[in-house]
Amino acid sequence: MYWILDLMILTLVIVCAIGAITIKDLLGTAILFGAYSFMMCLLWAIMGAVDVAFTEASVGAGVSTVFFVAAIFRTTRRTRD
Amino acid sequence: MEVVHSIRPIAAILVSVSIIPILISCGKDRPNFREAWTFVAGVLKFLIIVSMVPGVMHGVLYTFNIVHLGPGLDIGFKVDGLGLTFALVASFLWIVTSLYSIGYMRGLDEHSQTRFYSFFASSLCSTIGVAFAANLITLYLFYELLSLSTYPLVVHHQDPEAKISGRKYLIYILTTSIGLVLPAMIICYHLGHTLDFRPGGILMGTGGKTILTILFFMFLFGFAKSAIMPLHSWLPAAMVAPTPVSALLHAVAVVKVGVFSIIRIFTGIYGISLLKSLHLGTAAAYISAFTILVGSLIAMSQDELKRRLAFSTISQLSYIILGISLLTPKGMIGGIIHIVMHAFGKITLFFGAGAIFVATGQKYISKMKGLGKKMPITFLAFFIGSLSVIGLPPTGGFYSKWYLVLGCIDAHKISLLIILLISSFLNALYFLPIVFKGFFSKEDDDVDVSKYKEAPLCCIIPMIITATISVLLFFYQGIFYKLISIGLKL
Amino acid sequence: MIDNHVFPILIVITPLVCAFFVMGLYWVDKRLCLPLTILAISISFISSIITLYSVLTSGTIQYKLGGWPPPIGIEYRIDLLNGVILVIISFISLFNLFTSFNQVSHDFPEKKGTFYSLYLLFTTGLLGVVITGDLFNLYVLLEITSLSAYAQIALGDKKRAPFASLNYIFIGVIGASFYLLGVGYIYMMTGSLNMGDVAHLIHNLHHSQAIFVAFIFCIVGVWIKMALFPLHIWLPNAYTYAPTASGRIIAPLMTKVMVYVMIRLMYSVFGIDYLFNTLHISQSIIYLSSAAVLFGGIMALSQDNLKKMFTYIIISEIGYMVGGAWLGNKTGLTGAILHIINDVFMTFALFLSAGNFAWRIKDLSIHNLEDIFQKMPWTSTGFVVVALSIIGIPPTCGFFSKWYLILGAIEAKQYLFIIALILSSLLNIILFFRVFEKSLFSSKPHVMESKETRSYNLIEEAPANMTIGLLVIGAILILIGLYSGKIVSNLILPFIPKGL
Amino acid sequence: MKKVALIVVILCGAILIHATSEFPKWGEINSPASLHVSPYYIKYSVEQTDVPNIVTSVLADYRGFDTMFETTVIFCAGLACFLLLRIFNDKEEETESIFYRHIPSGIIIEFKNHEVDIRDEDFELIDSKFVPYDLIIKTVCRILIPFIQIFALYVVAHGDFSPGGGFQGGVILGASIILLAISFNLKTAIEKISEKTLGVLSAIGVFIYAGIGCLCLILKGHFLDYGKLAKILPIDPVKARAIGMLGVEIGVAITVMAVMIIIYINIASQGKHQEGL
Amino acid sequence: MELLIKEIIGKYNYWLYIILMMIGLYAIIAKNNLIKKLVGMNIFQTAIILFYISIGYKKGGTLPIIEIPHGHHTISPESIDISKYINPLPHVLMLTAIVVSVATFGVALAIALKIYKEYNTLEEDEIRMRLRGK
Lengths: 81, 490, 500, 277, 134
Prior knowledge:
The complex is a heteropentamer.
Chain B: E1 2-5, H1 8-18, H2 20-26, H3 31-51, H4 53-57, E2 60-70, E3 73-79, H5 81-108, H6 113-132, H7 136-154, H8 160-192, H9 209-222, H10 234-237, H11 243-270, H12 272-278, H13 280-301, H14 305-325, H15 329-360, H16 371-374, H17 376-390, H18 396-410, H19 414-440, H20 457-475, H21 478-489
Parallel strand pairs in B: 1-2
Antiparallel strand pairs in B: 2-3
Helix pairs in contact in B: 1-3, 1-6, 2-3, 2-6, 3-5, 5-6, 5-11, 5-15, 5-20, 5-21, 6-7, 6-11, 7-8, 7-11, 8-9, 11-14, 11-15, 13-14, 13-19, 14-15, 15-17, 15-18, 15-20, 15-21, 17-19, 17-20, 18-19, 18-20
Chain C: H1 7-26, H2 33-58, E1 61-64, E2 75-78, H3 80-107, H4 112-131, H5 135-154, H6 161-190, H7 195-201, H8 209-226, H9 235-241, H10 244-278, H11 282-301, H12 306-326, H13 330-360, H14 372-375, H15 377-391, H16 397-412, H17 415-440, H18 451-457, H19 464-482, H20 484-492
Chain E: H1 2-10, H2 12-30, H3 34-56, H4 89-119, H5 124-133
Helix pairs in contact in E: 2-3, 3-4
């Protein structure tokens, strides 16, 4: 059971990473990037790095994403690649 | 040999730089004051140098060390016979030239005179620095400073022609010194672990034959100020500078710094026995013989007086190198004493050319017909100068040529002897017609000679002085002879 | 070894703490920011001099932060090399404050205080990078330095600086991350982060592939940060468009400190035995640095903007130092270290003179410098001295480091490097005399009163503090040159590791 | 560019994969990294510092110097954002239209011609990208925010014994204010905690950290040697270390909170501090 | 074959980090949009963090928080089993690295905003075109 979860997260991390850099909408990028960070944080939590995971959850998935969305709000969602 | 630590060498060097702030502060508002200071500095410098003559004659070696850079590396000065000879000539001629440039610059109402005098002073400082350098690195330092401080003098007119010449000058001089001398010097240090000029050289038994030969040619061509062919063409180009610059720097100071550096390489770095064993002297002798011949031939084809003088200088400089590369005592003395003789002869010629330019605005020989009648003193001096450069008595030039010939015979190089004689003949061919035309030709119709008169007194007097000395040197050259033989024995 | 000495820590802590004070004071009284900044860096400067003195008298100094012994905690380890560089960094940083305070008030009228805070952080970062003896601590301080450099650069030219700075961020982050990755590999294989400890542990791992990769990533990361030739693309724009006051300190110090880091990694962490006996890459690195030297020179020739030309000169000089450090002999390393010292001053002086020109002339194209010698004689004099030093004319200091580098190259038989060094000198001649020809000898008539020249004729000498600053640095260039023998024998040679 | 990128990526990947073969197995207990320095921390953390969370003890004590600079990095980022984005004189050209709000009624007026300049007490200039309130979100957040803040304080204070610490707590604390700014508007948040306060707080936080370090220095210890605090506190050196760490964590939390808010408000309003997002 | 599979499974975290790192690196270099590059930058950094965390992991280890037996105030060093606790040092380092990455991210966003204000676009080639066209 445990390894299935592990494998799922691994796949999701890569999918989110590729998605974040390929999706043609910056807001989508922001959200996928948040998801990526959160998956990463889960991965680290599994590996026992709870402090790091905690930080990543609050920073990577939380505040970074907010900054990101704020910046997109002030600039543009448009992207060509 | 007595070694004396003395501040006299450094004082002689610095005295001309120290007046630069004064010159700048005087500026163009007080020209008399400015030029008086130049004069004072010149005299002071000459006196300091003269004061060392008796000591050196009695075998004293004046030394002064500024700073220690590393094992075998110092910046320091050493006054020996050779350096003193060169310094005496250069510093004396600076006084004369200062006088002359007052007349010339004011006569033509040139711009930026303060800059001119300042850089002139710093050029002289570097020249004396080269003369007194105790090792190769000090010599290189002043060699580069000289290149840099003459650059503004070459570009003095600031027109495109001057700028192009300035570029050419820099490219030739700096490229060779950085591209050839600098690596050669470092290799030399790598091999010998020192760069001091020592009697007998420092490279004996340090490197293979190939590397030493390559090194030798790097030095020979690296000091491009000696204008050895094919690195000569900066010298005619540099003639765009005002005449005092051409006279003192491009007939005496700068070019002879090049030659002097080569002399130091021969005597202080390689040593005569090493050169002999590698047969490098012969190679250098033939290279210089080639320059002598070709230089003379090109000089004949020039119509612009200063350019003709420049090519004459190129060929005369190679006399000196030829004399040194004979590696026989007489040849070497002849070569080195030619520095003195040629300096006085050639500067007289340049003064003459400048005087003609100031008085008439003429640069071309073909238009100087009949000028001699209006400017007799100038042309007479020019005649004496010509005699000295050709090497005819009663001028000092005869003396050096005589020794060169003796040296050739001693070295059993009859081919070189022939070249010397041919070249002397060529010299006569391109100098004497100028004087002849000046005195005896009928003036052209389109040139109105009658309105011309002699150049200002400031131009005439220096010319008379140098011409007189050229003649006097025929009779009293003993002091130089003694200094040089002391210097060479070191 | 001395322990429990208070000065090493003061070097870093004073500017750091004062950075917070300056930030706080900004909201209270803006006039106090500058004096406090000066005070902070002065204390740092004095402490670093004292530290250097005690290193000279009694050998390497060790400072245990938190009181924990080295592999457990972080330590400061000050030997001659970083002692000297600390003094130089704090000196330049302090000196730059005096030469640029009017520039700062001109550029950032409202945010002056916060700017000084950033400036202090930048200085702290540099000092910390140099003084630390811990691999990870170095990374953190490197990031402080870089972050404040990114911000300072982005504050420059309104149109181009932010873009240049963002590019710098991308590439800089790659560099720093590579370094971090390399440190990770080292940690994985040895279990330690302390430089001395790692150097000890790495002995048994010479043939490990992981250590090799660690080495490659550390070195490449540092190269990116120092802008060695193929990795240099961020540098020219970033340094050209940086605000004058920061450009002057970032340009000379950042790259040179990275060269220091490289030397430290090479000689104090991986060790000579590993570098030159196990790895066989020194030959190719010397080719690379020769290429850097030449590329920098050639690109500099093609520039019209004075500042951009200077940035390419920096790239070329980086090649000198990297090549010297990799020559693998005593003389070469001496030359590289001496050149770090010289190049800090030379680059600083270059950017000082560029700043002085820019104070009066907005667009620093070379053709705008026509006849500048008459208008700004003192600045131009300083500029000439620096130029001569970069060309390598004695007795300026540039000559002497070049001397050692060429001598080292001859000993190592690296003829390509010699040729590159000499060609670069020749390129520099063309480079600078192109400017001199314009600035010394105008082809224009002297009196001219047309509409477009009127503003030009009004140009006058830059403010006194800038001009005097430049002249002082010019004098220092010559003094360092004259005393380079003493510097080498007293400060550099004792550092050179045995067996080289 | 794409080709260059591919080449670089493949090159780097190849080097990395090449080295991976020599790695100790993942999770290996006897890997060098687990044997050299880290056992010391695991063994002596409780004995020497009285902190069971080893990460905290290493972070704030053994390698406390790193953490001080980590906080400085954050401070530096806040400073940089302020310097880069903050605009004081709001006379920047407004390219599009200008919005004014009539305060009593909340009606928003749009002016296409931007030369209009209303100087009436009842009107205020508002952001062009103004987002209107939402009652539900507003109410939920108002209830939620205090709990978030209490949790944040718990995380800070309990960092010694459980995951968390100054940094995480500070981020959460900052996030609560950011939530306020999002759910209400930026002006409300700035009224609650002004720019000046934030600036001073961000400096104070790191200063607490460095100050504790300097205090140790003054007490004749090494920098950040918390054990020396026992000289002025009525406890033994081991406990003093724990106290020192707590103080340091609080400092970190203050700075992180302040900086997170500074970055947010500057990015969200492009430095104008109006009511964007 | 079996060895290879063992190798792949035994070190799967390391493979994952290499893949993520390469994705990030590719995005930094090849992407045209500045924000995309920023995302790539962050992915790149998190990949390195993943690598560090993987170093610290110990099979069968638990969180690096010492369990103090009930009723005791402290625990003697001898009674702690090192292999029971995960290596805490990489965690500490990576906390710092995360902070650094978020700081860089914030500054980079601020600069991106400035760029957008100046050029009204975030596409690198468009900005370069504007710069050249000037």
